[in-house]
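Minutes, project huddle
Topic: does the predicted pose make sense with zinc ion bound?
PN asked that the exact inputs be recorded in the minutes so nobody has to dig through chat later. Recorded below.
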Amino acid sequence: MKKISKVVIPTAMALSMVLSSTALANPQSNPNGPYIENEQNISLSSYLSNEDLAKTLTKLEASSKGKMKLEVVGYSNHTLDGYKTDVDKGDPLYLVKFGDADPNKKRVLITTQIHGNEQLGTEAAIDIIQKLSSGGKEVDEILDKVSIWIMPRINPEGSDNQYEGKWYPTRYTHQAWLPENIDLPAGTLAPWYYNADGSERAQNNNGRIVYGIPGYDQNRDYNPNLDFRVENEDKEEIAKFLNSRTTNNSNYGGFYVTAEARTVTGVFKEFKPDVFVDVHHRGFNTVSDEDNRSVPVQFAAVVADPYTDPFTGDKYEVDEDVLKLGKQVNALSAQALQRGNSHFGAIQKYPDVNLPGTALGAFALNDSAIMLIEIKGQSQTLGQKQAGMLKETVKVPLYEVFKGLADGSIHDVDPALYDAIPESTNRISDPTTRD
Ligand SMILES: [Zn+2]
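Predicted holo structure (tokens), as shared on screen:
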């Protein structure tokens, strides 16, 4: 996210703030931060490496007494149906299955770490997998009615990125734009979400680093046309589309150039989930001018407008029933986090966006109710601080959603409660620029 400069304060108000010592003494948010200083080393040591993740999932499957099935459904550099990128090293993409793609059951698909530097979703997913695989009466009642598929860490390359000999997770995948490899004319411009020089915001927001491995924002590579495959398209038409900035932009679906997006979409098409959840990280906000509680999490049930495919002319929009269920899922989640006036319940809606190239956007336009979960802070600004509490803001809502789908009570939730969740406001500047 970009840094947003502070709103200009009228002179009279600025003066009164200077004169009022209590205003200066108040923290900008409660809790304030946690923030990491520029020169402070951030610690990621408690987070799972790719190797740890593989071991943990294997162990959980073995101890689940058949409840959980673990599958490798693709790799970061190739799909199981033969699509290959230029990258040699390929990390597996795991699918954890509780139940089958049974049309008589409710179905929930959860993905995490589509952005490699957003670890907590995966850590929370592991806790959820542990709980579901260990069973018990309540879990059995859920799994009797609901199939739950989880893909933890769908960007393993960004997650495993190294820089100067150190583990340095990044947002982007690893893959070069090589138009000739997909039979496009040499010199065809890359999709707009390509990061050619492999550079990102540095840890602690201390400027930018160039780690030098090109890649894509996987979360712009999806397309409402789930069957869009560049190799099957008219190459001249695609080249023309990419070479114009009036079409090569975020108003359109992505190009499915990453093996990761193709793999996740394959799982989506097989499973046809009623509910799709994608877990991210974001920045810092307070609830409002009057309420300075630090927002632990933002939710969204809508991230894409109605869409017309520029190549086929096909139209996509979110069905009314699907939208209603999405609002109910998000509303129940927000309700599940209320604890008196605790900052735990200081929920906001994610800002309005129209992003048909995101997994959530593309899947919502294909009949899945969605929930975007955006956890406070990035690994660059937060490290492991507050990890326990922030994981709860993912686990508690999802568990309530499972229960609500299992006993049908999700359908009694008033969708207006979603509309009433406070909008995203009062963004706090990045730690390096805070007062
Ligand atoms: Zn993200």
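Observations noted during the meeting:
- The CA atoms of residues 47 and 143 lie 28 Å apart.
- The first helix runs from residue 11 to 19.
No decisions taken; revisit at the next huddle.
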